[in-house]
Amino acid sequence: MISLSKRTKGFTIVELLIVIVVIGILAGLVITTYSGIQQRARNTVRQTDLKAVQSQLEAYYATNGYYPANSTTDGLGSDSSENQTFVTTNMKGLDPNALRDPTISASSTNAYSLLTSAPAAGVLQYAYIASPASCDDSTTLCTGYQLIANEEGSTDTYTYKSLN
Predict the structure, then answer these.
(1) Which residues contact 109 (CB under 8 A, 6 or more apart)?
(2) Could you give the CA distance from residue 76 to residue 138 in angstroms, rounded to a whole number?
(3) What is the pLDDT of residues 7-66, one digit of tens each?
(4) Which tens digits make up the pLDDT trace of 86-137?
(5) Residue 130's Cα: distance from chain center in Å?
(6) Mind spelling out the 3-state secondary structure of the chain?
(7) CA spacing 20 to 30 A to 142: which of 34, 38, 46, 135?
(8) Which of 149, 76, 152 is nearest to 118 (CA)?
């Protein structure tokens, strides 16, 4: 007997749509997870940078008996080029990139500048605040400091204070 029905091989449109939807859902999950992993990695870099700067500041204190001032001529401050000069002169073990947030490009004009007051919410830049506020390394020595950075994706901040 001869069969009159022809059987064709292939996928139906419904089957193809189901596969496309599943692939889309998986791609969305991967992209969301990947961006969260990157954010956590940058937050880890922030903590590592601040700890490295803190250890160099403590070494600076051990050598000089005071911490650097906020002013750019006497220490760490808001001028990028003078910060790099200060670090290469006084903090030889510190990578100048530790002074910049991981989201800021090294070619940016403020790549190595530090804020001299706590960063506003959402601002991803590091701050160095010497204390007392009037210290200038000539008439009033700096006896303390705070290093501050905002956590990416959160309202929390990382704060490291002088150990002395």
Answers:
(1) 80
(2) 15
(3) 677 888 999 999 999 999 999 988 888 878 889 999 999 999 999 999 999 999 999 899
(4) 888 888 888 888 888 898 888 887 778 888 888 888 888 899 999 998 888 7
(5) 20
(6) CCCCCCCCCCCCHHHHHHHHHHHHHHHHHHHHHHHHHHHHHHHHHHHHHHHHHHHHHHHHHHHHCCECECCCCCECCCCHHHHHHHHHHHCCCCCHHHHCCCCCCCCCCCCCCCECCCCCCCCCCCEEEEECCCCCCCCCCECEEEEEEECCCCCCEEEEECCC
(7) 46
(8) 149
Residue 71 is encoded by which pair of tokens? 């002013």
Q: Which two tokens stand for residue 98?
A: 């530790």
Structure tokens given for 31: 């992209």
**Tokens 């997870």 sit on residue:** 33
